[in-house]
Amino acid sequence: MRGRRGRVLFSFFLIHLFFVLIASGISYAEEGSDVELFPFSKELESRIAFWTKIFTEYDGHQVVIHDAENLDIVYEVVDFRTVFGDRTTNEAAKDRLIEQVKATYRDILRRMSTGSIDPSALSEREYRVHQLFQAVQDKNILLRAAENLRSQPGQRNRFLQGLLTSGRYNDALKEIFRNHDLPEELIAIPHIESNFNYRAYSKKGAAGAWQFIRSTGQLFLKIDSKVDERLDPLFAGQAAARLLKRNYEVLGSWPLAITAYNHGRQGMANAVKETGSDSLVEIIEHYQGPNFGFASKNFYAEFLAARDVIKNYRHYFGEVELLPPLEHEMVQISRPAGLKTILRHFGISREELKEYNPALRPPVLEARSPVPAGFLLRLPKGKSDQLSTFLAQVNSDGSSSEGKIAKVRSKASRYRVKRGDTLRAVALQFDTNIQTLRLLNGLKKSGAIRAGQLLRLPTGVRAKAEGLWVIPASAKYVEEEEEEEDGQLASANSPKGKKGRVLAQDKKGRGKARIAAQPEKKGNGQKATKVRSSKSRGTSHRIKKARANGDEKGSSLRKGSLKKKKKASNRKGKGLTLRKPSRRDL
Hints:
This protein is mostly helical and 586 residues long. It has a domain at 61-153. Helix content is 49%, strand content 6%. It has 25 helices and eight strands. The protein has helices at 2-37, 42-56, 80-84, 91-114, 124-133, 139-147, 156-166, 170-179, 189-194, 214-217, 233-251, 254-263, 265-275, 280-286, 294-311, 313-317, 339-346, 350-356, 362-365, 387-396, 423-429, 434-441, 475-483, 534-548, 553-569; strands at 62-67, 74-79, 149-153, 328-333, 376-380, 414-416, 454-456, 468-471. The chain has a three-stranded antiparallel beta sheet with strand order 2-1-3. A three-stranded antiparallel beta sheet has the order 5-4-8. A two-stranded antiparallel ribbon has the order 6-7. Helix 4 packs antiparallel against helix 6 (139-147), helix 8 (170-179) runs parallel beside helix 11 (233-251) and helix 11 (233-251) crosses helix 12. The longest helix is centred in the N-terminal third of the chain and has 36 residues, at 2-37. The protein starts with a helix and ends in a 17-residue tail after the last helix. The model is unreliable at 13-32, 395-412, 476-502 and 504-586 (pLDDT under 50).
């Protein structure tokens, strides 16, 4: 009897212990999730502290003279206001001053390495260097320090301005990254790339808040003389999410994936291979690859610093208020439309249009070229209510020198799919939804529609105007995830996990799957519901079959398919400008 009672009590003890462990485990997961996703070690602390000061303490009038390897070593903070006063000084004069200061410290370090400086008669700058290196006996360390001198301008004022501006886009960007199952914290990246200046151009040709160079941007975005979507924080944010997601799938950890945003995915794959380590700290310490310099070594530390500053911005900048979210609606233009016509009928100014659509280039904004076909025009909320009046006016004229607008179609129970159509586009055009179209036509969730196919429509639906379609503000940013389950970007073996969860890591901080590094080509990554010709469908089938048989020709088939698609995309339909197939209709 006593033994039975003891077993019962022990069972209750185990049950109690089980629930205690579950509770503690959940608490740990919630508290430690950020650390697990974005780990940092003691070796990164000095870098993070340095960049936090650059973002929050030193403004654009100040330049920090420091050691490029050990960021704890700061020689001097040069303040241009102290040197030049309030008078306007050109950048060349400032650059000359900084070079003179660096040359002075370089000379001091070299003289210290030879013992030719008298410790009893030190100048102010000599004293600083002496204090920093007084315990150093190895002259090679001093000589190395002389070569590692670097200057870093402060960013407080620009970081704050970018922080305020980001309020217009933060909610939409967070939604974009959630829809890609990515951590929201990644929206800190444009703050370190450009201080969230979406009009920024770098010396290397990178553009926009997310700083895409042209070659990479063209994989995801429309870039030409009329439209540069790199300049739109939301369009470019969608592209950045896709790029970062692929970086993570290939490299397996966020420190490497984020660094790859700066150094390139293949560059980081090479670093892992050469060092034999997937630890960013080890790579920073030992990797000597080409172009893996100061910017690449510090990119992840900058990200961690910026993330903390953004999260605690009132601690660093006081009671400032971010700009309110950009409340907007989007209208898709399927035919070229003149700027003056759009401004007049939607009752907005040129400046408003420019603010809401930073991707539009001067030829369009100066009314020298129409807004191109296919462009998603962003309008202030409520302005799309004037769409019917706009169409009636333009259609009553029969045509417009600034671009024709198609007339509203009559009622229809069937629709013949055109080249370039997607299920979402058809659903929007006929004011229905994707699920209804799938049910009516027996389409699987991952099934494709093809040009020439007849789709059954709900009874009595009426097509919206072909010229302009009103689109929910978030549709541009969520469509891909809904229709891309069979896409090329999301590998079946990737650490994507269930929808709604961020890409996570195992207990060792690595990705749950290791995927071989591949070239940054995404041309065949079409959405599952994207229209494909019979030839492209056959090619896709051959690629899958070749891969299933272990045939290395699968990748070459993809390239061949891309070339065919690119040629096809250059053929123009009636009044419609087709986009490159390598870019998804996000």
